[in-house]
Amino acid sequence: MTEFGFIGLGSMGRMLISGLIRYAKVPAANIAVTRRDRSRLAEIGEAFPGVQTRERAAEIASAARSVFLCVKPAEVKAVLQEIGPVIGPNAQLISLAGTVPLDMISRLVNCRVSKLMPTIVSEIGEGIQLICHGPKVTEGDKEALYPFLEKLGKIKPVNERDFGFASELTSCNPGLIASILRHMAGAAAAHTKSFTPEEINEMITHTAYATTKLLLDKEMTYAELIGRVATKGGITQEGVAVFDERLPEVFDAMFEKMLIKRSSVEERIRGDFIAGEGTQASMSIGDLAIDCAKPERLRGFYAELTGWEEGELYGCPALIAEGGLKILFMGCDFDHIPPVWPERPGEQQKQLHFDLQAGDLPAAVERALRLGARKPAEQYGGEEWVTLLDPEGHPFCLTGKGTPARMSICDLSIDCREYEKLCDFYAALTGWNRHATYGSVALIADCGLVVHFMGCDF
Predict the structure, then answer these.
(1) Taking phi first (over 0 means left), then psi (-120 to 50 degrees means alpha), and beta for anything else, what does residue 379 get?
(2) pLDDT digits (tens, 9 = 90+) for 365-394
(3) Do the Cβ atoms of 119 and 19 come closer than 8 Å?
């Protein structure tokens, strides 16, 4: 039996094989590899002399104790369908496809399943490798695998629920850090003629490396290091002040974009796995209903504000929002009591509100006010978010983030007492993926709409 088998040979697969041979001292003959393009199997032997090659994934799965699945997420299902009939129940399948859930993998193979996320810095035996396990993985399996992986960097077991976000901090981070350093180097080059770009890169890269090493070796916090360098009234403090003012917004936008993208990919992968099983990958939002006193008037307000198509659904005035989402305006059988904003204990509270994305925020606010909206004195969204009240008192927000062709709904927020519990309920009901965001929790609906669950202050 082969000790380690690899299905696929992407950059991470190459890195793992190289690390096992170089750092973990695994004999090359104890590693077997296959790849989709069989015409390039000979390249494996050239890159890793002594490593065995196989024609098919099933040959790897049937003979290896630990099988590393190193293919793209979109290719995972087809590979699992091939190896499912031959992989033994005591084999450990370790997937590097971070966006493919363990439960989806376990649908197609009857073995012990784990998920591993190394990083590019594992090439030098450094960094943090994330790992999570399915229920069949035993402590003995971990004890057999970890000594090898530890040679490639620190192992950090995490809950699968947190695997995606942790990946942004580890596997994605070398690319993000390199991007930051690149922009710093580019800005530096624009401010000097004394140094070549290569010299600037050298100074920044070596300093970044030494800074990280100092933090780790001296067990210093970021604040401690900044305090030692950025003395009061000094030059460094001026630069830090610029970062403190501008970077929080940049990093918040970065994480938000990455988390939404990850959730979208995970949802698509889940749908691909379930396709053909007679069930939907997840529930879909059919429509949103807004209670109001004068449905026709309120539909007219939002139609003028957004440019959405007017219609009728279930006998109620309706709008067709960007992306096809239907919004109904439903009259009440009794006097409609508008919510109070900001909320106050004992007063009528809003149940949900949505955020509208506009390419030109000032113009959108002006148009909304002209159409009958009101702008409360209390505003909590900084320069990028403006809270307004529609003609019937429902709060909604406008944001200038992005440049949509026409106004669109980017977020839907639900007020609740126990937001974690309610989010879990809808996640289990719908199959939507959950993510932490804006200091709370959210689900990404099938249509891409971000549904936030917001706790109340009272």
Answers:
(1) beta
(2) 999 999 999 999 888 877 778 999 999 999
(3) no
